[in-house]
Design goal:
Oligomer: single chain
Number of domains: 1
Largest sheet: none
């Protein structure tokens, strides 16, 4: 359990955290059904395009690596970026912001899982240099002999992402409960001080 400093613990008014948590629930629900090619949600699409940029940059950075690693690097980079954001929020003790970071990781894992699940069918629209664009996960799974397992592997990634998002929402409720508990404790302490004076 994180150790909270009493004077720094969630310094904003309680109602802001409650509104923030409701927004996170909305975001969670939007991410579950998100498809980049059909999205009308500008906020989730914006997060997706940042992840997509990291995905493509990771391919470029690892273009010197063996082809199988270069192909997987895009998805690995996309998820790693979200993990780094989550780690940074936790390290800086920005616990409520870590819920957002966890939801972003959920989005990344859902996108990667969806891409993996498409390895055999190859129905997702792909972007890349030249006229023929290689499907990363068709290549990677084909090299490992896992092509028949694309739906299962992709489903596992999506499921783990959904669990991370759900845990983030539960963590947010716990933080709000701790804020309420802290507010009650501070009020009763102030009342005790008034009685003594």
């Amino acid at each position: 359990m994180p150790k909270f400093q009493k004077n720094n613990f969630m310094p904003l008014p309680l109602w802001l955290y409650i509104i923030g948590w409701i927004f996170f629930v909305y975001l969670f629900l939007q991410i579950i059904g998100f498809k980049a090619e059909d999205s009308n949600n500008l906020f989730v699409s914006g997060l997706y395009f940042i992840g997509f940029g990291v995905h493509e940059a990771s391919h470029i950075i690892f273009s010197f690596a063996p082809p199988i690693l270069a192909a997987a690097a895009g998805s690995i980079g996309e998820m790693s970026f979200s993990i780094l954001i989550l780690a940074a929020t936790l390290k800086s003790k920005s616990y409520f912001a870590s819920i957002f970071a966890g939801l972003w990781l959920m989005l990344s894992m859902n996108n990667v899982g969806r891409y993996m699940s498409d390895a055999r069918r190859q129905l997702l629209p792909l972007i890349g240099p030249g006229n023929i664009v290689q499907h990363d996960w068709n290549y990677v799974f084909g090299q490992f002999g896992w092509l028949e397992s694309d739906l299962m592997i992709g489903g596992i990634f999506r499921g783990v992402g959904d669990v991370i998002g759900f845990i983030g929402l539960i963590f947010g409720l716990w933080l709000i409960f701790m804020k309420i508990k802290s507010n009650i404790k501070n009020k009763s302490l102030k009342q005790s001080i008034k009685l003594v004076c």
